[in-house]
Amino acid sequence: MSRVHDMGGRYGDGAINPKDDATFVEGWHARALAVTLAAGALGQWNIDYSRHARETLSPKDYARFSYYEKWMAGLADMLVAKGIVTREELQSGHGAGRSDLADRVLRAEAVAGVLAKGSPYQRPEAPAATFTPGDRVRTRRPAHNLHVTGGHTRLPSYAAGLSGTIVLRHGAHVLPDANAHGLGEAAEPLYAVAFPARDLWGDEACAQDEVVLDLWQSYLEPTT
Amino acid sequence: MPHDTHDHPHALLPPDPALRVRALETILTEKGLIDPAALDEIIDTYEHKIGPQNGAKVVAKMWTDPAFREAMLTDPMPLLDEMGFYGRQGEHMVIVENTPQVHNVVVCTLCSCYPWPLLGIPPGWYKSDAYRARVVREPRAVLAEFGVTVPADKKVRVWDSTAEIRYLVVPERPAGTEGMTVAELEKLVSRNSMIGTALATEPTT
């Protein structure tokens, strides 16, 4: 049911290397980040759409690509899917003529303003919040998109079908499950929900530890 | 975007990643969709202007200014905006404080969400499969690999950044720092300590 990116709790990845602490190891890493941000500034997709583009890489590609290779692959796929770049252009490595979107290009002098402006995801209009801190809730199971088969969702499979406790109310936020697929923003109340580690992982976890996830109202149902 | 497809145009690009990036940059530049000078500006911003020094300012001020600390824990965005620390990937911050009872650590298991305006671009290990997969399941073992031992009677709370909320950990203020200036305190606040994979640096005596 899940996709390859949904790896929370997975076994087999080995030790972490804390010395792998550079922001950009290769020159092209920084370039890949910048190309992605500049292309995003054309306004042809949103963050949920671009996350989904990376998540829909084949499991083989997802696993073998380094971090910024995933970004590049996702970007190439989005550019073609949106009709901004053709397959022939990808193949040849050259652009065939000026794009209709060229007047939207991000200029160097606009960069600071665009990055500082951000892109808030909280919305004033949404269904009323039905939960308050302290309420017990259960997450949906399976952890899949209700609107699009195999679509984007932010409910990790390791936290599906489990009971937790609301710890924070974040206000109403754009729902990725809709926003990734051109179904509108469909903002919903968003909550931080705490799960006892042992309910997630069994006895291998410490009894007092917990994991907190940010989950939308439609991911949750009341429980006792 | 088709939701399950074998149609992956990215395979048309050269296999070498550096050449892939260059091909995309060339195509987009020739189409008038990218200003290469804007790329330089973006890179300069995240290499030199925005980084963990911003988060360290917030932490040191929280350690020394009770009213500021209270605001950061309840409604941080107005003051972060005032400090110039609002921006992309930091629109909705939640600041969580380590205490003698709780050690916090942050991850994004689904991708690599990270508070850019306060910490910059994430380090390699934060984006690694091993960190994403393991820290939710065995945070104490992961922290040990970073040299952090959490006492058995202290709770570990892992924050999985599954939405657009971004979390910053405030490490406990080390003992023996009472007389230090805010500028001196900032130097004790490492990037990893604000993710939760390190403690604040002990002052050298």
SSE blueprint and pairings:
The complex is a heterodimer of chains A (224) and B (205).
Chain A: H1 27-40, H2 47-55, H3 59-64, H4 67-81, H5 87-92, H6 108-117, E1 136-139, E2 163-173, H7 176-179, E3 188-196, H8 197-201, E4 210-216, E5 220-222
Antiparallel strand pairs in A: 1-2, 1-5, 2-3, 3-4
Chain B: H1 17-30, H2 36-49, H3 52-64, H4 66-74, H5 77-82, E1 92-97, E2 102-107, H6 116-119, H7 124-127, H8 129-134, H9 139-145, E3 155-160, E4 165-170, H10 182-186, H11 191-195
Parallel strand pairs in B: 1-4, 2-3
Summarize the structure.
The complex is a heterodimer of chains A (224) and B (205). With 224 residues, chain A is of the alpha+beta class.
Q: Can you describe what's shown?
A:
The complex is a heterodimer of chains A (224) and B (205). Helix content of chain A is 31%, strand content 15%. Chain A is of the alpha+beta class and 224 residues long. Chain A is built from 8 helices and 5 strands, in the order H-H-H-H-H-H-E-E-H-E-H-E-E. The radius of gyration of chain A is 20 Å and the shape is globular. In chain A, helix 1 runs parallel beside helix 4 and helix 2 crosses helix 4. The two termini of chain A are 27 Å apart. Chain A folds into 2 domains: 91 residues, Nitrile hydratase, beta subunit (Cyclin A, domain 1, Orthogonal Bundle); 87 residues, SH3 type barrels (Roll). The mean pLDDT of chain A is 96. Chain B is of the alpha/beta class. Chain B folds into 2 domains: 36 residues, no CATH class; 146 residues, Nitrile Hydratase, Chain A (Alpha-Beta Complex). Helices cover 42% and strands 12% of the residues of chain B. Chain B contains 11 helices and 4 strands. In chain B, the strands form 2 sheets. A two-stranded parallel sheet of chain B has the order 1-4. Chain B has a two-stranded parallel ribbon with strand order 2-3. In chain B, helix 3 crosses helix 4. The longest helix of chain B is centred in the first third of the chain and has 14 residues. Chain B is globular, with a radius of gyration of 20 Å. The N and C termini of chain B lie far apart (58 Å). The interface between A and B is large, with 122 and 97 residues. Strand 4 of chain A pairs parallel with strand 3 of chain B.
